[in-house]
Amino acid sequence: MGSKNKLKRFRENESFANVIQPSREEIIDNNYTLKGNWNKDFFKNDNPIVLELGCGKGEYSVAMAQANPNKNFIGIDIKGARFWRGAKTALEEGMHNVGFIRTQIELIDLIFAQNEVDEIWITFPDPQIKYKRTKHRLTNSEFLQKYKKILKPDGVVNLKTDSEFMHGYTLGLIHGEGHEVIHSNHDVYKNVYSPKEVVGIQTFYEKQYLEKGKPITYIQFKIK
């Protein structure tokens, strides 16, 4: 994507009512105004809140919101030029149950309050295979504890990935730390028991992986 296109998208994002772009300073003071108030001030309803972390182009968040009008969805990514597409689509289609936040995922527990989130989706994250990149894996122990802070007691995390490494790493960590695996699958499109929201929605990159014959893995779990 050219720099002119990026700048255009950044400018458009600033005008989108469904895009929130807080400064790091606003967040790290631990007094972020929307923290604990997402239902009341942003969505203006009491419906469950579902997050998609590293939402990319935002198509998964938008598709889930279309399929679940009684839930609120928030896509989170640091690259606003990417989720511009999802935000624009949601506005064009008059959707009020999906929004986007441009921020770093490591700040998530300063953006949402305890027990404010019902569900988390992590779709095709960078597996960060090198050992020195472990701290950046979105399912490492530190991230899981951040998710636990904001999830309701019965809240769940979903990991959908084409990376067998990421799948295996996460599964091993879940078992090792005593978390609860609800569903685990090494190839969701060959399993008749795969949840419909897992196989019924495909991201731009997922379609490319499937065309190459790469299996898509999935884990749903609760953090204890």
UniProtKB/TrEMBL annotation:
Keyword Methyltransferase appears in the UniProt entry: yes
Enzyme category, top tier: transferase
Pathway annotation from the record: tRNA modification; N(7)-methylguanine-tRNA biosynthesis
Any GO MF annotation of the entry: tRNA (guanine(46)-N7)-methyltransferase activity
Reaction catalysed by this enzyme: guanosine(46) in tRNA + S-adenosyl-L-methionine = N(7)-methylguanosine(46) in tRNA + S-adenosyl-L-homocysteine
Coiled coil: none
Sites where the protein binds S-adenosyl-L-methionine: 52, 77, 126
Stored Gene3D superfamilies: Vaccinia Virus protein VP39
UniProt cross-references to InterPro entries, sorted A to Z: SAM-dependent_MTases_sf, tRNA_(Gua-N-7)_MeTrfase_Trmb, tRNA_methyltr_TrmB_bact
Leader sequence residues: none
Record keywords, A-Z: Methyltransferase, S-adenosyl-L-methionine, Transferase, tRNA processing
Pfam families assigned to the protein according to its UniProt record, in alphabetical order: Methyltransf_4
Its EC number(s): 2.1.1.33
Stored CDD domains: AdoMet_MTases
Residue sites binding substrate per the record: 130, 162, 203-206
Known role: Catalyzes the formation of N(7)-methylguanine at position 46 (m7G46) in tRNA.
HAMAP family attached to this UniProt entry: tRNA_methyltr_TrmB
NCBIfam families per record: PRK00121.2-2, tRNA (guanosine(46)-N7)-methyltransferase TrmB
Family: Belongs to the class I-like SAM-binding methyltransferase superfamily. TrmB family.
Protein known as: tRNA (guanine-N(7)-)-methyltransferase
